[in-house]
Amino acid sequence: MNKFENKVALVTGGSRGLGREAVLKLAGNGSDIIFTYNTNKKAADEVSTKIAQLGRKAVALQFDQSNISSIGRFVESVSSALSEHWQRDSIDFLVNNAGIGKHEMLADLTEETFDSLMKIHFKGVLFLTKNLLSKISDGGRIVNISTGLARFSLPAYRVYASMKGAMEVSTRYLAKELGGRGITVNIVAPGAIDNDFNKESFDSAPQLREIIAGNTALGRVGVSEDIGGVVGFLCSENAGWITGQRIEASGGMFI
Question: In the Cβ-directed half-sphere of 3, how many Cα atoms lie within 13 Å?
């Protein structure tokens, strides 16, 4: 048996997009899954069904990462789920994926947009991870999600990209802090992905797919499955010597 089978992973934002594909990849690799959704319970139920079809256990928990004061209660819900469904008190993998996409030019930027992006993409991730530290098994894995926009620049994405850039720095620091426990901490930076997260941008500018494909070495826009495989790899025994790294999965966008 692969020693990384029969693990328990916690994936935030696992009901759609990149999170959904990460959840299914991890389940396919033999992990049971706790995953979160914000408002779409129907989508979460569909993902739970797919996990069950893969022969793994699934627990979907509602969680709004922008509500920092709710993190303690959410961690208690994770503890209850672990005790009830697995008779244990720890997870093996934490995938910090939950997020939203907002973009505004600086002249139009509102404090509301700034605070929303900061809470979800940086503060929420930081304090959720802090509250889960004692529940991550020694030798476990933490995978954060960044963006290619932290390397290359497109108009109006400065705040979103800045929060992801902050997470890239934080990832290196946490890798250093948790190395003594054998926990690896890495961050995956997707390029442009054609999924529901970016649907509004692609629908409003149909030519965008062609432009992005033309600026990508592999000649196409990415899909969620491209990222799920990277997350799955980082949560495998083959990735045990990789930590503190930013791994861009963009198909060679703007290289």
Answer: 6
Q: Is 110 left (phi over 0), alpha (psi -120 to 50) or beta?
A: beta
Q: How many domains does the chain have?
A: 1
Q: What is the pLDDT of residues 202-227, one digit of tens each?
A: 666 778 889 999 999 999 999 999 99
| Catalytic member of 37, 157, 160, 173 | 160
Q: What percent of the chain lies above the pLDDT cut of 90?
A: 87
Provide DSSP, 21-43: HHHHHHHHTT-EEEEEESS-HHH
Domain presence at residue 254: no
Tell whether 2 is covered by a domain: no
Domain with residue 118: its CATH number is: 3.40.50.720
**Catalytic residue check, 160:** yes
Instruction: Give pLDDT tens digits for 62-100.
Output: 999 999 999 999 999 999 999 999 999 999 999 999 999
Q: How far apart are the first and last CA of the chain?
A: 40
For residues 184-198, one letter each, b for 16 or more C-beta atoms within 10 angstroms of the residue's C-beta and e for the rest, the string is bbbbbbbbbbbbebb
Report if residue 164 sits inside a domain. yes
The domain of 138 spans 8-248
